[in-house]
Each structure stands twice: as structure tokens, then as C-alpha cells.
């Protein structure tokens, strides 16, 4: 990781500013910050057994607000690529892309290994590894293709994935299907990765190999949105086109879901159109409010999350695991992790509903990170990956 410095005030002087030598968009950093804050919230409940339904993933087919968070982030990765790599002729770009992808993948693998470092059963897929693969593929596609080709590739990935999942027989099982353990993607994960899958399922992985293809399409949808934002069209017109594209994507999702259901774990093509459509509309709203209308004073807290997104995601996953290594003795002679002790001591006694206690624990965790990140932002500290 590399540390650099910015001036927070620069964000509020114009809609596109220079930050760490790259062009950044205030509305995009705000959208990213909102997404990361939501990611921390849903990943850190006080009690995994008591979570309000909107803060949980859909069991299988269908979706909840929580299912939007990860694809929103991949969409934002795509938008960022179109800004960061707009000078396609710069020397050494491919090497830098590969290096960053390897760092992201390694950070994800480290999280999966910590604290036992059991290489025999470590989960290889995961959120950061998927971000790494999507970033790598989307960046290389962006460097080597035109906007028209990127659109065709996105469509081809979605249609090709649908054909594979819906019509290709599953070896050692039979007809194509979309069930958790018997679909083509699950078979491929077991065949290639063996025992290195999500420990909750063991037979399939929500960030598996085959579903990375439509996830790349999510990244490409962000690249196309970023290309529109960098165009010379009037700002208000760009916001309208983003919103219209979101509406068309949602319509396509509705039609496609009739025979290829919306499913986050499978990252179905209809799920890509749904989440990209909603991300387009959310970005259009942020862009219109912040960059077109100039309502910027409220953005600083979210920008603080947005400019250190990978850092806070990594540490928010690592620190609770470190806390659980600290054991606190209990009256009955047993012991619990420090994180669980803090939750049982400072939250459970003060809430009648365990769901409210769990939510309060999650919100407090987000608030603690806000204080840390806002301090970093004020001190002009960004940790680049």
C-alpha cells in the first residue's frame, strides 16, 4: 500500500479535480463512500443470528438491498477505470494494472487465511479476489478496445453466461439447473478449487469462477457510464442519459428474470442488469445533485469513506478477527472473544429487541470507522492499493 496526500478543500472547488495525479469525480467518491459504509454495516452486525431482513442477502433467487452493495462497488470500479486509465498511451499501464490486481487478490487471500493460516482449506475466492479479477479484466479490455466493443463484450458475457448456465449439462449430475450445489458453476468450482470454497456451503462459492464472467460485465457497465461522464455533453444531459440507461437496464432485467432469475450468488445476467440499472440511477442522482446542482457540503463524510475504500474494507474485516483472538473469561469458566464481550456488555443490556441491539452494534462500528476515516481525510492521508 502507498500513502499519499490530498487537500480536502480541493473537492469542493470544481466537479472534477486532481487527486494523487488522477482525475477524480466528487459524485463518484461520494457514491463509493455510501456503498462502502453500507458494506461495513451489513458485514458487521452485533449478532449474526439477529439481523433485519433488508440487511441480509436473499436466500437464493430474489434480492434484498444488501445484494446491491457488492455489484455497486464493481460498477464503481468500472467508472473509476475510465477516469484513471483515460490516457491509454501511458507507459507501464499493463504492469501497474497487473500489480494492483495481485495486491488486491493477496489481501483477500490474507483475510481468508487469518488467523489460522490453514493453506489446506483456505477459501480462494472472495470479495477482494473478485474485485481483483474484475479490475484486471475490465482494465485490460478498456485499454485494448473501443467503447462499441466494450458494449458488445458486455452483452456477449451476459448472453454467453445465460447459455452456459441454462443449457449446458452438468457433468456427473445431468441437465442444466440453477440449484445451489448442482449448477454448472458449482461443479466447476469443486473441480478446479476442490476444498478451497466458502466454508458455509463447501460445495459452491458465491464468488466462484464461472460467475466472475458476468461480474466482469458489471465492471464494463461502469466503464461505459464513466465514458459517458467524460464526454463533452452538457452536465445535465449526462445525468439524464445515465438515468435513462438505468431505466432500460431495469426493464431488461425484468424481462430476463422471467427465465433467468435474479440471483446474487449466481450473479445471473438479470442480476447484472438489475444492479447496473440501479447503480446508473444512483450515480445519475449523485452527479445531478453534487456536480450539476452543486449541493456538496453534505458529501465530506462519504468522501472520507470513498477515498480510502479498500483500506477500510480490509481493516474492517481484519480487526474484528484480531479482537476475537483476545479471550475474556466468563463467570461460568468459559471465555469469549473481546468483540463478543463488548457487544454483550455495551449493547445487549440496553435494548429489549436483540435485532435492535445487533443493528446498534453495526451502526456503532460504522461510526467508529467514520471518525477514523474523517481524521485521515482531514490530515490528507490516503492509502492507495
TrEMBL record:
<feature type="transmembrane region" description="Helical">
    <location>
        <begin position="127"/>
        <end position="145"/>
    </location>
</feature>
<keyword id="KW-0012">Acyltransferase</keyword>
<keyword id="KW-0808">Transferase</keyword>
<dbReference type="GO" id="GO:0016746">
    <property type="term" value="F:acyltransferase activity"/>
</dbReference>
<feature type="transmembrane region" description="Helical">
    <location>
        <begin position="266"/>
        <end position="290"/>
    </location>
</feature>
<keyword id="KW-1133">Transmembrane helix</keyword>
<keyword id="KW-0472">Membrane</keyword>
<keyword id="KW-0812">Transmembrane</keyword>
<feature type="transmembrane region" description="Helical">
    <location>
        <begin position="97"/>
        <end position="115"/>
    </location>
</feature>
<feature type="transmembrane region" description="Helical">
    <location>
        <begin position="68"/>
        <end position="85"/>
    </location>
</feature>
<feature type="domain" description="Heparan-alpha-glucosaminide N-acetyltransferase catalytic">
    <location>
        <begin position="24"/>
        <end position="160"/>
    </location>
</feature>
<dbReference type="InterPro" id="IPR012429">
    <property type="entry name" value="HGSNAT_cat"/>
</dbReference>
<feature type="transmembrane region" description="Helical">
    <location>
        <begin position="240"/>
        <end position="260"/>
    </location>
</feature>
<protein>
    <submittedName>
        <fullName>Putative acyltransferase</fullName>
    </submittedName>
</protein>
<dbReference type="Pfam" id="PF07786">
    <property type="entry name" value="HGSNAT_cat"/>
</dbReference>
<feature type="transmembrane region" description="Helical">
    <location>
        <begin position="357"/>
        <end position="377"/>
    </location>
</feature>
<feature type="transmembrane region" description="Helical">
    <location>
        <begin position="208"/>
        <end position="228"/>
    </location>
</feature>
<feature type="transmembrane region" description="Helical">
    <location>
        <begin position="302"/>
        <end position="323"/>
    </location>
</feature>
<feature type="transmembrane region" description="Helical">
    <location>
        <begin position="152"/>
        <end position="170"/>
    </location>
</feature>
Amino acid at each position: 500500500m502507498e500513502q499519499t496526500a490530498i487537500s480536502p478543500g480541493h473537492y469542493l472547488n470544481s466537479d472534477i479535480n486532481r487527486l494523487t495525479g488522477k482525475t477524480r469525480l466528487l459524485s463518484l467518491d461520494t457514491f463509493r463512500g455510501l456503498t462502502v459504509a453500507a458494506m461495513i454495516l451489513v458485514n458487521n452486525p452485533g449478532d449474526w443470528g439477529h439481523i433485519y431482513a433488508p440487511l441480509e442477502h436473499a436466500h437464493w433467487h430474489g434480492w434484498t438491498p444488501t445484494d446491491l452493495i457488492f455489484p455497486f462497488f464493481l460498477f464503481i470500479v468500472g467508472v473509476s477505470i475510465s477516469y484513471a486509465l483515460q490516457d491509454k498511451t501511458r507507459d507501464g499501464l499493463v504492469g501497474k494494472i497487473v500489480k494492483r490486481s495481485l495486491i488486491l487478490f493477496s489481501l483477500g487471500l490474507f483475510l481468508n487465511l487469518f488467523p489460522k493460516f490453514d493453506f489446506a482449506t483456505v477459501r480462494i475466492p472472495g470479495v477482494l479476489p473478485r474485485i481483483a479479477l474484475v479490475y484486471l479484466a475490465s482494465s485490460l479490455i478498456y485499454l485494448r478496445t473501443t467503447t462499441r466493443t466494450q458494449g458488445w463484450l458486455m452483452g456477449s458475457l451476459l448472453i454467453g453466461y445465460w447459455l452456459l448456465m441454462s443449457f449446458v449439462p452438468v457433468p456427473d449430475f445431468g441437465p442444466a439447473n440453477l440449484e445451489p450445489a448442482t449448477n454448472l458453476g458449482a461443479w466447476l468450482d469443486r473441480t478446479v478449487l476442490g476444498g478451497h470454497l466458502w466454508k458455509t456451503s463447501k460445495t459452491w462459492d458465491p464468488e466462484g469462477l464461472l460467475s466472475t464472467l458476468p461480474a466482469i460485465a458489471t465492471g464494463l457497465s461502469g466503464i461505459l457510464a464513466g465514458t459517458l461522464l467524460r464526454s463533452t455533453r452538457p452536465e445535465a444531459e449526462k445525468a439524464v442519459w445515465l438515468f435513462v440507461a438505468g431505466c432500460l437496464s431495469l426493464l431488461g432485467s425484468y424481462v430476463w428474470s422471467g427465465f433467468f432469475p435474479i440471483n446474487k450468488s449466481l450473479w445471473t445476467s438479470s442480476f447484472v442488469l438489475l444492479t447496473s440499472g440501479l447503480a446508473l440511477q444512483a450515480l445519475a442522482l449523485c452527479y445531478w445533485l453534487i456536480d450539476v446542482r452543486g449541493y456538496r457540503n453534505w458529501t465530506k463524510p462519504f468522501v472520507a469513506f470513498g477515498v480510502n475504500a479498500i483500506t477500510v474494507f480490509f481493516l474492517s474485516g481484519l480487526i474484528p478477527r484480531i479482537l476475537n483472538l483476545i479471550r475474556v473469561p466468563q463467570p461460568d469458566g468459559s471465555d469469549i472473544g473481546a468483540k463478543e464481550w463488548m457487544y454483550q456488555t455495551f449493547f445487549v443490556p440496553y435494548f429489549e429487541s436483540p435485532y435492535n441491539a445487533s443493528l446498534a452494534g453495526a451502526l456503532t462500528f460504522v461510526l467508529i470507522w467514520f471518525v477514523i476515516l474523517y481524521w485521515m481525510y482531514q490530515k490528507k492521508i490516503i492509502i492507495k492499493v
